From TrEMBL:
This is YceI family protein. The keyword Signal applies. Pfam families: YceI. It comes from the Bacteria. Keywords: Signal. SUPFAM superfamilies: YceI-like. It comes from Reichenbachiella agarivorans. The lineage of its organism: Bacteria, Pseudomonadati, Bacteroidota, Cytophagia, Cytophagales. Residues 1-19 form the signal peptide. InterPro entries: Lipid/polyisoprenoid-bd_YceI, TTHA0802/YceI-like_sf. Residues 42-207 form the Lipid/polyisoprenoid-binding YceI-like domain.
Length: 208
């Protein structure tokens, strides 16, 4: 009797072991990698909240700086990278901010009028300038700058960039040689040399 009982128990135990061995435990999991697809988006520049700051220097003497308005623009992105865009600048809105432009001898209107002439930006003929963004690599934007109807490729350095579904904010610095765009006024005094570099800072706020 004991032999039969022990044999039966052995058979049952063997069957249980075989059954358990043929099943995968619930603790076994397969990890799957998920790729995050960068979202493409296009934002319209909020012209009321965006500006372009500019500055130019007369070596060893003084400099002028101010702001100018953006009339329209758009920025395209993929993820947090800018893939394209265009910013159109209204050259009729040049506004000096430096104290030297507000003296009794040289009011701001004198500087604005001079910057608007053929010595500088010839605003009557070319009322807008533009920067067309072609690509971004790291913190560098490559684009086509158009001033006085002349277009040349320039580089801008991004100093801040935030991209969210709600909008985009960005600042970028660009320095261009005025001689490349026929902004070629030369001061009549030899010791007052107008720098060839014109610096601009794009301050962009854009929304979907």
């Amino acid at each position: 009797m004991n032999i039969r009982t022990n044999l039966s128990l052995a058979i049952i135990l063997a069957l249980l072991v075989a059954a358990c061995g043929g099943k995968k435990t619930t603790e076994e999991t397969t990890e799957t990698e998920t790729e995050t697809v960068a979202t493409e988006a296009t934002y319209k520049v909020d012209t009321a909240s965006s500006t372009v700051a500019w500055s130019g220097e007369v070596a060893g003497v003084y400099g002028h700086n101010g702001v100018i308005e953006i009339t329209e623009g758009m920025i395209s992105t993929k993820g947090d990278t800018i893939t394209g865009g265009k910013v159109v600048i209204d050259m009729t809105t040049i506004q000096p901010l430096d104290s030297a432009s507000y003296s009794e001898e040289h009011p701001a209107s004198d500087l604005v009028n001079h910057l608007s002439t053929g010595d500088f930006f010839l605003v009557e003929t070319y009322p807008t300038s533009s920067f067309v963004i072609k690509s971004q690599l790291g913190s560098e934007l490559t684009g086509d700058l158009t001033v006085r109807g002349i277009t040349k490729e320039e580089k801008a350095t991004i100093t801040s960039l935030v991209v969210t579904p709600e909008g985009l904010t960005a600042t970028a610095d660009l320095v261009f040689n005025r001689q490349d765009y026929e902004v070629s006024w030369v001061h009549y005094m030899q010791d007052m040399i107008l720098s060839d570099d014109i610096k601009i800072k794009l301050n962009i706020v854009a929304k979907p």
